[in-house]
Each structure stands twice: as structure tokens, then as C-alpha cells.
Amino acid sequence: MALEFSTLADVHAHGFDTVIDVRSPAEFAEDHIPGAINLPVLDNEERARVGTIYVQESPFLARKLGAALVFRNAANHIEHHLRHHEGGWRPLVYCWRGGQRSGSFAWMLQQIGWRAQMVSGGYRSYRRLVKRYLYDEPLPHRLVLLDGETGSAKTELLRVLQANGVQVLDLEALANHRGSLLGARPGGQPSQKAFEGALARALCALDPREPTVVEAESSKVGARILPPALWNAMKLARRIKIIAPLEARCEYLVQAYDDVLSNHDQLMSRLDMLRRIRGHDTVDNWAALSLAGQKYELTRALITEHYDPAYFKSSKAPVALVRMERLDETGLDKAAARIEWLINHFISLRPSRSVR
């Protein structure tokens, strides 16, 4: 018997002890059902080998080889990775489309006595739900955008607001990117599919009746694209703009981006992409400041000569302003309290108007 998911809520509240993805490591790395572990019944090379035989030689030969590999690998997983489970263990198994890979593995687990089930339609059924949620239907969430110039500590404010019990959606954390030219983080970004899966899960965990604060972004966070449902909701959302002095923003960015500012070669590999926009003389001056180790002066130049002009060119009118003289813990707490008041007493009580 196969389990069929009707909604993403079904996926996130499946009730099984373990979710097992039996696809190849490459398939799993691109995206998988949240919380799943990978116990491949065909590794990357084996899957490619079976597929080649299927196309170039014979479907029968491919199935025969595939069956031998699947059962051999499944036996290895049972002996080494699953041996600690007791008789009442309930695993949920899936592959690409709910076919032979998951069917064979689930059958073996059932023969042992474990209460295993497979996902009807496999990973594809889950992916269709994510796509429908983020591409085909409007989001019911009441978003409030936290806007402001580069270095105004918006990400830190999200953390303070969340700690105070306000619903937040941290897109930069989900995309593993700080959302600017210099925003790359260790480990790189997830795939687009994995980003969308994590985004859908985060949205499903939020109460749509309560306002949700999200940092104002462009339509991309690094290389990851915001799906249409979220982007449309963000365009309709009201904005609270954070205003902070240039000096405070520079000091904040010197600390927040110290990893990038301390690596001259890495920094210039990114800034060189701005030569066509800002000119060779400007970028050469940035390079000189970087080589001299003048992080504050470099940060100030980047803000005034690149980030602020780009921000003002694309900025939209906010419905409220929150001024911060300092970007330390005290300043963040005061700003967060003001934002909460605005959300509870003004912004969240007014219906959004359509964006044209």
C-alpha cells in the first residue's frame, strides 16, 4: 500500500519514524523531502550504468542488472544502517516516481516485519506540491517588509523580532546567502529546488492569520530566484524602512563582512564585475583600499559609491520609518520594539492595495 500526499501539510506531518530516500546521492543532493535520509539502492555510477544499458542494449538486461544491484545495496543498508531498529519501526520510503527502487526496498523491509510504506508518485509527487504552492496559488500570508539601506542590520533585527515572538521569514538563511554581491557564505547555496522546498516548509509553519516580517529583497537572493507566489506577496506588502547613520552602517558591515574584507583576492574577484557599472577608476580605488587593509574606508566607499546609489534607484515608498542611531544590542532592541508596535497598531490592520 502506498501513501499519497494531498498537501504539503501531509508531507510535513507524515507521522513516520524515518523517511528514506533511496535515490542516488546526486538526486538526493539536488533536493529531497525535508528530513529524509539517503540510503541509495543505486549509487550515481550504478544508476548511470543501468540507464545506459537500458537505452543502448536491452531493457531486460538493464532490469536484471538493476535488480541485482538494488537488492545487494538494500541488504547492505539493512545490515549496517538499519540494524538498530526494533520491530515497531515505521519507515516511509520513496524514489523518483514511486517505482521499482522504492517498491523493492519497502518490500524487503516489510518482509523483515517493519511497517514500511512507500510514497505514491515518489519525489515527483512532493515536488508537484511544492510547485503548486509556490508557483500556482497566491500565498495567504500577511507579509511586512523590513527595508533599509545596506548595513542597517535588517538581518539582525529579524533575529531579535523572532526571539520576541514575531513571525519572521529569513530568506537569506534559507538561501545561505547574505543577499548582495559580497554575500556568498561557506558551503554555497542550495539548489533552486532545495531552496523552494525549504521555503515552502518555512511558510507552511507560519500562521497566515498573523503578520510575518521578511527582509526586503530583489527577486533573487544570490543565485536563487524567489518563486512567483512569494514575490507577488512581497510586492503587495507594506514596508517599514530602517534608517541608520552612515558611520554606524560602516562599522556594522566591517564586522559582518570581515571574512570577505580580509580576503583581497576573493573580494576583488567579485568587485571586478562592477567595472562596467562603476568605472575602472572607482574599482581601482577600492582595490587600493583593500590592499592597504583599510576596511572601514573601503566599506564607506562601497556604500556611498555603489550600494546606496543602487538602493535609491530601486527603493519604494515605505509606510513607516524606524530610526536607529546605534546598531548595537540596545539599538536593535529599541528598533524591534518600535517595529512590533507598528505591526500591531498600524500596518497589519490595513488591507494591502494592488500593485500595478
Tell me what you see in this structure.
The protein is α/β, with parallel strands linked by helices and 356 residues long. The protein folds into two domains: 2-132, Oxidized Rhodanese, domain 1; 139-349, Rossmann fold (3-Layer(aba) Sandwich), CATH 3.40.50. It contains 17 helices and twelve strands. It has helices at residues 8-12, 25-30, 44-56, 59-80, 100-112, 122-136, 154-163, 171-175, 192-204, 228-236, 246-256, 258-261, 264-271, 275-278, 280-291, 295-314, 329-345, and strands spanning 2-3, 18-21, 37-38, 91-94, 117-119, 142-148, 167-169, 211-215, 220-221, 224-225, 238-243, 320-323. The strands form three sheets. It has a five-stranded parallel sheet with strand order 1-5-4-2-3. It has a five-stranded parallel sheet with strand order 7-8-6-11-12, sandwiched between helices. It has a two-stranded antiparallel sheet with strand order 9-10. A hairpin with a 2-residue loop joins strand 9 (220-221) and strand 10. The longest helix has 22 residues, at 59-80. The protein is globular. It starts with a strand and ends in an 11-residue tail after the last helix. Residues 349-356 have low confidence and may be disordered.
